[in-house]
Amino acid sequence: MMELFTITLPISGVPINVLLLVLLGVAVGVLGGFFGMGGAWMVTPALNIFGFPMPFAVGTDLCHMAGKSIISTRRHAKFGNVDAKLGLTMLLFDVAGIEIGARLVMHLERFGLAGPVIRWVYVVFLFLIGSLVFFDYFKKRSMEKRRGPGGGEEASGVRWHETLHKISLPPIVSFPVAGVRCSMWLPAGVGLLVGILAGFLGIGGGLLMMPALVYLIGCPTYVAVGTDLFTVMIAGFYGAFTYGMKGRIELLAVLIMLLGAAPGAQVGTIATKYIRGYGIRLMFGLTVVCAMVSVILKQLKLSEAASWMVMTAVLAMTLVVIAGMVRGAARELRAKRGMA
C-alpha cells in the first residue's frame, strides 16, 4: 500500500515516500515555529537518512526552510517578538558566512568526503549545544535552591553576555525590542560564525542562532525565537540561491514538505505564547540530543534505527508542543470567561 505513495525525485533520482515527506514537513513546521528555527537541524539529517546525498539534503532543506520561515516570522512579528534591527545587523555578516560554508561543502564533495565530515561536525555541535542548555538549566536551579527564586523565568544560569557587553569597541548600538545595548561587533561576529556553520551544515543558522542570541547577546528567549526566524528566513533564501546555482536542490521534495510545514508553522508559533523561557530551552535541548543520536546511528551504518530515532523524536516533541498550546489556550479562554 505504501508503495503507491513512493515516487522517484527527478533531479537527485532518490525514491521517496510522499507521505513521509508531508509528515516530516508538519512536524518540522511545528517545531521550527516553536523553537525559532527553520528545522534544518532535523531535516538535513533526516533527508540524508532517507537516502538523499548530503549536498542535496543540505540544499533542499535550505530551500524548504526559507519558504516555511516566512509564515512563522509573520506570526512572531504580530506578537512583538522580532527585533528587526538586531536581525539585520547579524544578517549582513551571516550571508557572507553562508557562502564560505557552502564553498567548503563543494570542496569536500570533490574528494568524496562531504557526507561523513558533515555528519561528524553535526554530532560535535549538537553535543555542545545540548550540553550548554542542560548546564544552564541545572546551574539556574542550583542558584535558586541556594538563594531562592529570582530574576524571573528568563534569567539564565549562564550569563556570558554580561561579559561580552563590556566590550566597548565603537560603534555602540541599542536594540530596543531585545533590550540590549552593546558593541555592533558582537552581533556582527556572532552572525559571521553562525553563517559559516549554517552554509556548511545546511542548518540555516537556526540551531546556533537561537542559543547565541540568548547566551551571547542576552535576548529574552521569546525575542530570540522571533528574531532568529527573521534572520533564518532571509539567510535561507540566500542559501537556497547559492545551492540552487550549484544544482543541489530537489524542488519537488521542497514543495511536498511545504504542504505540511505551512499549517505546522502556525501551530508552533502560537505555542510560544503559552510556553516560554526554560520550557522552550529544555525542550530544545532534548530535541537536539535526539537529533545527535540519530546522526551517530547513521554514521555507524544503522540507518533503520536512525530513521526510527528521527521520526519518533520529532513526532513526540511535536505532540508535546501541540498539547502545551491547547492547554495554554484553554487556560486563557477560562480566564477570559472568569473576567466576563
Question: Which keywords apply here?
Answer:
globular; 340 residues; single chain; two-stranded antiparallel ribbon
Mean pLDDT: 78
Give the helix tally. 12
**Main beta-sheet annotation:** 2 strands, antiparallel
The count of strands amounts to: 4
Would you list the SSEs in sequence order as H and E? EEHHHHHHEEHHHHHH
Helicity level:
over 70%
Derived from helix and strand composition plus strand pairing, the structural class reads: mainly alpha
Radius of gyration: 20 Å
- Major sheet strand order: 1-2
Q: Note the gap between the termini.
A: 53 Å
Shape: globular
Outline the low-pLDDT stretches: none
* Estimated share of beta-strand residues: under 5%
Compute the number of structural domains.
1
Could you please describe the fold and organization of this structure?
- By secondary structure, the chain is mostly helical.
- The chain has one domain (2-339).
- The chain has twelve helices and four strands; from the N terminus they run ββααααααββαααααα.
- It has helices at residues 18-35, 40-49, 54-78, 84-110, 114-147, 160-164, 185-201, 206-217, 221-245, 251-271, 278-299, 303-339; strands at 6-8, 15-17, 172-175, 180-183.
- The strands form two sheets. The protein has a two-stranded antiparallel ribbon with strand order 1-2. It has a two-stranded antiparallel ribbon with strand order 3-4.
- A hairpin with a 6-residue loop joins β1 and β2.
- The longest helix has 37 residues, at 303-339.
- The chain is globular, with a radius of gyration of 20 Å.
- The model has no long low-confidence stretch (mean pLDDT 78).
